[in-house]
Amino acid sequence: MTTVAAKHILHSGIFHPLLREWQSPNVEITSKNLMYPIFVLDDADAKDPIASMPGIYRYGINSLKPMLEPLIAKGLQSVLLFGVPNHLAKDKVGTNADSSRNPVIQALKLLRVWFPNLLIACDVCLCPYTDHGHCGILRPNGHIDNEASIKRISEIAVKYAQAGAQMIAPSDMMDGRIGAIKKALEAANMSNQVAVLSYAVKFASGLYGPFRDASKSAPQFGDRKCYQLPPGSNGLATRAAARDIAEGADMLMVKPGLAYLDVVRHTKDTHPEYPLFVYQVSGEYAMLYHGAKNGAINLEIVLDEVLLSMRRAGADCIITYFTPLILDMLHPKSKY
Ligand code: PBG
Ligand code: ZN
After folding, report:
1. What is the distance between the alpha carbons of residues 117 and 122, in angstroms, rounded to a whole number?
2. How far is Cα 92 from Cα 132, in angstroms, rounded to an integer?
3. Where are the beta strands (DSSP E) in the chain?
4. Phi, psi of 16 (to 5 degrees)
5. What is the rounded average pLDDT of the residues 204-230?
6. Count of CA atoms in the C-beta half-sphere (13 A) of 216
7. Which residues are in the CB-under-5-Å shell of ion ligand 2?
8. Average pLDDT, stretch 326-330?
9. What is the reported pLDDT for 21?
10. Is the pLDDT of residue 1 over 70?
11. If you measure from the C-alpha of residue 218 to the centroid of ligand 1, how many angstroms do you get, rounded to a whole number?
């Protein structure tokens, strides 16, 4: 005689792999739930390892095709491009963010021809292209000139769209940028051909460190606390998402992921009509990578758990540097 009442026995629902899958029907991970961030360098033939992000590279436009072909064969559906200037000059207004020598603009034209079914999103920001490394244009006193910044950012967004970007993802966190980008796309007759994925809820996080090294975009003085959200700010997170929706965002993002899952859930519950993206950022990648490398955790098991936590919290799509590994995990030789 068992002492546990029948309806309190949970083991009866999970003793078989399929039974276990039925217990979590809405938190599957498929290739549709992944977007792969790619660093595109202005060195056409480069495949340049990034010390702060082992296993991740900066690719020149000529090395993109051999890298992407096998991933697309495994089901990769979308990418997020980041430009990295190595030779290109930096200045106060980020001239090379949208010059004809910009590596993202050059890559877009090729990628659209090589991979017609791949959905291509482009990060839009000034920080890799400004000499001060901030995400907007500065006044002489060092403060953000918001009007000048959103004007410049919307010019860049239009140039990327004209070069073939299907999604524009502004990560600068200037006020009013979504509205300005939408208006500029409309003036360029492109508003029905480009989606705007707003980095609506982006926190001023210590987890971006490896990325700033990767994209050579660290601020040369100060920090980003006057434009990115304070990590404890529930209220601003809610207001930022509502504002960007009011300005016309097609999709929302919360960033970083793991330390902000409560915000992910709240954003999804407040705006269930909008696809929600979560960015598993560079520091999250590095923590899992090094934790596994040092024997503390099993990478695949913990990664699967973390991805499920993001889906459970309400993420429709996860932007992750682990995408190649996850695609392999999705197609194991034998599942059980
Ligand atoms: C630039 C930008 C950053 C990230 C994406 N776009 C860094 C920052 O805002 O300082 C972070 C991505 C990552 O850490 O993986 N605006
Ligand atoms: Zn930036």
Report:
1. 16
2. 7
3. 34-41, 47-49, 57-59, 78-84, 119-124, 167-170, 195-202, 251-255, 276-280, 317-320
4. -125, 145
5. 94
6. 18
7. 125, 127, 135
8. 97
9. 87
10. no
11. 9
Q: Which ligand is nearest to the CA of 171?
A: 1
Q: How far apart are CA 25 and CA 143, in angstroms?
A: 48
- For residue 282, the one-letter residue type is S
For the whole model, what pTM was predicted? 0.96
Domain boundaries, the chain: 6-333
Spatial CB neighbours of 257, under 8 Å, sequence gap ≥ 6: 264, 278, 279, 280, 281, 284, 306, 310, 315, 318
Smallest-distance ligand from the CA of 136 = 2
Average pLDDT, the chain: 96
Question: Residues in the chain, how many?
Answer: 336
Which pLDDT band holds residue 324 (cuts at 50, 70, 90)?
very high
CA distance 145 to 129: 16
Q: What is the pLDDT of residues 38-71, one digit of tens each?
A: 999 999 999 999 999 999 999 999 999 999 999 9
Residue 283 to residue 289: CA distance in whole angstroms: 10
**Ligand 1 within 6 A of 254 CB?**
no
User: Does the CB atom of residue 282 touch ligand 1 within 6 A?
Assistant: yes
Nearest Cα neighbor of 238 from 252, 218, 257 is: 252
Q: Which of 92-96, 222-226, 328-332 has the lowest mean pLDDT?
A: 328-332
**Alpha-carbon span 291 to 302, nearest angstrom:** 10
Q: Which CATH number fits domain 6-333: 3.90.600.10, 3.40.50.11720, 3.20.20.70, 1.10.443.10?
A: 3.20.20.70
The pLDDT assigned to 333 comes to: 59
